[in-house]
Each structure stands twice: as structure tokens, then as C-alpha cells.
Amino acid sequence: MLTALIMVAALAAGAPENPNPQHPNEEAVDPYAPSNANAGAKPFEGDTMWKAFHGQAGVDRVVDELVDLSLKDPRIKEIFEAHDMVRLRRTLKEQFCYILNGGCTYSGRDMKSVHKDLGVQNTDFNALVEHLQIAMDHEKIGFRDQNRFLAKLAPMQRHAVER
Ligand code: HEM
Description:
Radius of gyration: 18 Å
Number of domains: 1
CATH architecture: Orthogonal Bundle
Oligomer: single chain
CATH topology: Globin-like
CATH superfamily: Globins
Shape: globular
Bound molecules: protoporphyrin IX containing FE
Distance between the termini: 53 Å
Helix content: 55-70%
């Protein structure tokens, strides 16, 4: 009630409306239809892969290291720098959790439209995969499970890469 009153008072005082009330730390994006189909892969069955990644805490560590390494890598950092890394971390965590059958809903955009016009090349894709492998190694995810996960992502290469 108090929050509602403060919001009404702020609006009356001419404060700008938050363009992204659900995720106030993120930039607003153009409207799109959210769907798990946007994640670009079907989830694994059972809980083996979710356990292999050590659940949500493990997925969070892997995604954060993947993004951190990409932002430090002179080969690809410029592609990321101009974009909203708060949103990227959140949606990547959702996407990985969804694919690993961790029970998440993916609320992000589809792989084709989100990577359109980024100019990503195959070498950039390989650099990102290198970082993902390092992050999965640090999380002590077994080699076989790493490869099973990479095989799920592989078909997305043609959507992320520009020709
Ligand atoms: C299998 C490979 C990949 C997956 C699963 C993936 C996944 C994602 C996801 C979930 C998003 C956010 C969607 C949203 O905001 O709604 C995203 C955005 C983005 N991706 Fe990827 N990505 C992949 C490959 C790459 C590569 C190779 C690069 C560059 C080296 C890249 C650069 C970016 C950038 C810069 C954004 C932000 C775009 C924006 O905010 O408009 N991605 N990606």
C-alpha cells in the first residue's frame, strides 16, 4: 500500500516511469513473445544433467565465469561491451537451467533475432565455447556431461553466427 502511494506520488511529481519494472536493473527491450521454444533446444530428460552442473548454484557460477571471461577476451569483448550484461547473465542462466531440465522457464528472445546484426563469426563462437569449457572444468563437470551439453548448443551456432 505504502509502495503504491509512493509510486503514485513519484508519478505525480513527474518522475520518469521505470521502463522495465520487472527487471529494474536491466535495459528495456523491444516487445517479443516469450516462449521456452526461444531457448533453441529441447531440455534433457531426468535430473542427471542438472545434478552434473550442481543445480542452480553451479549454473550461476558457470554462466558468470563464461560472461566474465568473454568480457576479458580481446577477441570477442567488443561484441559484448555495448550490451546489457545484467540481462544476458539472467537470460543465459534461465536458458541453461531450462535446457539442463532444472525446471526454469526461459523468458528471453530467440537465438536468431537476438544475435542478428551482432556480426558474430565462427571464430567468435569457438572463443565463447572455449570459455564455457573452462567454466565447466572449474565447476568440475565431467567430460562426458560437458560434451552432452555442448552438443545441445552446437545447432545454435548457425543462428548466432553471421554469414
Ligand atoms: C550456443 C551459443 C550461444 C548461446 C546459447 C547464446 C545465448 C544468448 C542469450 C540467451 C542471449 C540473451 C537473450 C535475450 O536478451 O533475450 C544472448 C545475447 C547475446 N549474445 Fe549470445 N549466445 C550464443 C553465442 C554467442 C556468441 C558466439 C556471441 C559473441 C561472441 C554472443 C554474443 C551475444 C551478445 C552480445 C548478446 C546481447 C545482445 C543484445 O543484448 O541485444 N552470443 N545470447
